[in-house]
Design a protein that fits this description.
Strand order of the largest sheet: 1-2
Number of helices: 17
Distance between the termini: 44 Å
Radius of gyration: 25 Å
Order of helices and strands: HHEEHHHHHHHHHHHHHHH
Number of strands: 2
Shape: globular
Strand content: under 5%
CATH topology of one domain: Serine Threonine Protein Phosphatase 5, Tetratricopeptide repeat
CATH architecture of one domain: Alpha Horseshoe
CATH class of one domain: Mainly Alpha
Oligomer: single chain
């Protein structure tokens, strides 16, 4: 039986190379266009040419990458400082540069990027907070992450200081979720292969950390879905900053937050099934519940951390009965995630 998953039969392909000195895909492709009739006008290709690949390639050349840099400095850098941590359902890019793939692939050097940004500041085109905030990301964080990756060596990726081993929830691959922030983060990732740093850190990363997800599974997910993800940058950002799996080498405290942070920095909560102000009940925001559950189960790690004192003061202000209810609610959410039930 012929394999219906393909348009050409084995016999058709076996006959094609006969009499040819080379087997070029382009030649076979044109034969298949004629065989199938796709985008054909009689025996000639629609539009007058067979292949528009050159028009489909975006910023694969240095001059095109420079156009992307110029567009950022001209149109978005002015607002970068004010918008760099914001998240909006209908505007996933905001004023971010989208230049990390070009730098990571070598089409732009960090020197020329920062020189261009600095020149815009000195020309009075952008404020100091925008220029400094962007340059800090490039010469500070980017260089620092690369250094940590090489300094720590290959075993760094296996770090799991908090002992988190839960599997990555299916919502990260597009399964249903009742949380507007997680839906937006995943949907925009699927559409653009991109998410800016706060969406990665405080939505997908924050949720994974609070839920006890394996940092290695989260790292592999980031590495799989983002266009700018290379191991040298993804390992220290995920293992170190996002998941505190290195025991505090990179971050002095875990980057965790309740729903209040998401609400303050985004418009997600307005359209969410859950209530961002509730901690118990069917409509309690999972971020609220899991945040408190995390504090309780990792008290031995963080109680004496001076940057966590306010969080533990909040937890200790609850009655034992309320603490027990919150722990039970958090465990129920973790069980729902383990059973692949929508959260």
């Amino acid at each position: 039986l012929e394999d219906t998953r393909f348009l050409s039969s084995r016999a058709f392909f076996d006959a094609w190379p006969q009499g040819r000195k080379s087997f070029r895909m382009e030649h076979f492709y044109r034969l298949m266009r004629r065989k199938t009739g796709f985008l054909m006008q009689g025996d000639q290709p629609e539009g007058g040419q067979w292949n528009y690949d050159a028009e489909n390639r975006k910023a694969t050349k240095r001059q095109e990458a420079h156009r992307a840099l110029d567009a950022f400095v001209t149109n978005a850098l002015l607002r970068f400082g004010d918008e760099q941590d914001a998240m909006l359902c209908d505007d996933p890019m905001l004023s971010h540069s989208l230049l990390s793939p070009y730098m990571n692939l070598g089409f732009l050097s960090p020197q020329e990027v920062c020189t261009t940004v600095e020149a815009a500041y000195h020309a009075g085109k952008v404020p100091i907070n925008a220029a400094e905030g962007y340059i800090r990301q490039v010469i500070g964080w980017r260089e620092y992450m690369r250094g940590i990756y090489h300094l720590q060596g290959p075993d760094y990726a296996t770090s799991n200081g908090l002992g988190h081993h839960a599997p990555l929830p299916p919502v990260y691959w597009g399964a249903p979720s009742k949380m507007a922030c997680r839906r937006a983060a995943v949907d925009q990732t699927k559409r653009y292969a991109y998410a800016h740093h706060i969406r990665r850190l405080m939505v997908t990363g924050n949720f994974a950390l609070l839920a006890g997800v394996s940092p290695q599974e989260l790292h592999e997910w980031y590495l799989s879905v983002y266009i700018d993800a290379f191991e040298w940058v993804e390992v220290p950002n995920t293992i170190g900053m996002s998941q505190w799996a290195d025991g505090g080498l990179v971050a002095s405290k875990p980057y965790i937050a309740s729903g209040a942070y998401i609400d303050r920095m985004s418009d997600y909560c307005k359209s969410c099934h859950y209530s961002v102000v509730e901690k118990l009940g069917d409509r309690a925001c999972p971020f609220n519940v899991l945040y408190l559950h995390f504090l309780n189960r990792h008290r031995a790690f963080f109680k004496r951390n001076p940057r966590m004192g306010q969080a533990y003061h909040l937890w200790d202000s609850f009655t034992p009965e309320r603490q027990a209810a919150l722990i039970a609610k958090g465990q129920a959410i973790i069980c729902d995630l383990a059973a692949n039930r929508p959260v």
